[in-house]
Every structure is written in structure tokens, then in C-alpha cells.
Design brief:
This protein is of the alpha/beta class. It has a single domain (6-132, 173-233), classed as 3-Layer(aba) Sandwich (Undecaprenyl pyrophosphate synthetase). The chain is built from 8 helices and 8 strands, in the order E-H-H-E-H-E-H-E-H-H-H-E-E-H-E-E.
Length: 238
């Protein structure tokens, strides 16, 4: 079986999963974090090198103040626990998105986690927090035109390779497979540039119930598809 090098996941359905069980949405988010740790173990076990998950979008601030505050408290606990997860799986963490909107203690935990985990490289784990792809692209363009005087003087020097250096995912290979749980069939402003040639897999299973068997099913579907780039099928003998 061909194992994708990089898997991106939209962790959807925590709140609906909890509501179906007569529990508050916060319960679903807690269980979602617990399941994410299990999936990280599986990801490493089967040989995937990069995992990127959509944990909190720029649009999620529009949720109720109670739910947002609950999510912030979950992030505080989870980011602290990630130190142990990093050590266990020899996993490097990288937060993508704009952390400036978070409280200082959360921003500090992000810095501590990235610094601590920089010693590892067996699994690269990106967590999208306060992330939106349109926001990322705009931030990237602003950085490029303020930091790269050559492209300001000569816009013809703007290439994909140059532009990608200013994305949150600079230096990280593009995802091969996108998985979205809980029945929604859209990208929701997630990695719009990076997912240009990824295969998509959508499942009705809510994130807290997404286990190793579900992951392997997604990878099997990935293997069933003919990989095409730019509309041209890859030729084995080229």
C-alpha cells in the first residue's frame, strides 16, 4: 500500500457528536483532543511523516463566547500535554495561523512547544490555530512585498517557489490526502494553496469516532485513485 507522505485533516463534528449523546459541546472538543492523540500514534505507526490538522479557524471566533472560552481552556491544557506527546512520538510541532489574537499565556505555550519539539523529526505535526487560508495568503503577500525588495522592483520574479517561502507552511511538503470528518463536503478556507493537487476523502464519521480503521479506509481510497498533476497523468516510465 502506498502511504501518503502528508495527510491534512479537518477535525469536524465534535459538537454535534456530543449533542447526540446529550452532552455539552465542550465534552465533544475534549474527546476530539483525546482522539487526536490516538491518531498521532497511528500516523507514526504506519509511516506518515507529516500531519496537519484544522483545530480553530479565523471564523470560529464567531461562535458563542462560552464555547470560544471553553476552546481556549482546552488549548491551554492540550498545548501543555503536547510536550509529552512530542517526546513520546519524537514529533516536531509547528503552529500555523496567526497567534496574535490569543492570550499571552497561550502564545507563550506555543513558543515553548515549538522550541522543545524542534529537536525531533520522526513526525512533523502542524496544528492550524486561528487559521484561515485567505488570511494566510494575504499575510504572505504582505510579508513578501515588505521583505523582498527584488519582487517589488520586478514582479516577474514572483514565482510559486518564491511565494511559498512566505506561507505558514514554508518548508513543509504539500498534503497528498485531505480527510474531512462528519459529513461536510467543503474546504472551509483550509490550505487552499497547498491542497491544489491533493486527493479528498469525506466521511460521515464524526471526529471523536474516527479511528485507525477509518484512517486506513481513507488511505485505501487514496490508493484507488490515479494521481494526476496539472491534468496530466503520471507515467511510471517517464
Amino acid at each position: 500500500m502506498n502511504i501518503p507522505n502528508h495527510v491534512a485533516i479537518i477535525l469536524d463534528g465534535n459538537g454535534r457528536w456530543a449533542k447526540a449523546k446529550g452532552m455539552p459541546r465542550s465534552y465533544g472538543h475534549v474527546k476530539g483532543c483525546e482522539n487526536l492523540e490516538k491518531i498521532c500514534d497511528t500516523i507514526k505507526e504506519i509511516g506518515i511523516k507529516y500531519l496537519t490538522v484544522y483545530a480553530f479557524s479565523t471564523e470560529n471566533w464567531k461562535r458563542s463566547s462560552e464555547e470560544v472560552e471553553g476552546l481556549m481552556n482546552i488549548f491551554r491544557r492540550y498545548l501543555k500535554r503536547c510536550i509529552k506527546i512530542s517526546k513520546k512520538n519524537k514529533m516536531r510541532f509547528h503552529i500555523i495561523g496567526d497567534p496574535n489574537a490569543f492570550d499571552e499565556d497561550i502564545k507563550q505555550r506555543i513558543i515553548e512547544l515549538e522550541e522543545y519539539s524542534s529537536q525531533y523529526d520522526e513526525l512533523h505535526f502542524q496544528i492550524a490555530l486561528n487559521y484561515g487560508s485567505r488570511d494566510e495568503l494575504i499575510r504572505a503577500m504582505r510579508h513578501m512585498v515588505t521583505e523582498n525588495k527584488e519582487v517589488v522592483a520586478d514582479p516577474q520574479k514572483i514565482t510559486e517557489e518564491v511565494f511559498e517561502q512566505y506561507l505558514d507552511t514554508a518548508g513543509i511538503p504539500d498534503p497528498d490526502l485531505l480527510i474531512r470528518t462528519s459529513g461536510e463536503v467543503r474546504l472551509s478556507n483550509y490550505l487552499l494553496w497547498q491542497l491544489a493537487y491533493a486527493e479528498f476523502y469525506f466521511t460521515d464519521v464524526a471526529w471523536p469516532d474516527f479511528d485507525k480503521a477509518q484512517l486506513m479506509k481513507a488511505i485505501e481510497k487514496y490508493n484507488d485513485r490515479e494521481r494526476r498533476y496539472g491534468g496530466v497523468k503520471e507515467e511510471a516510465n517517464v
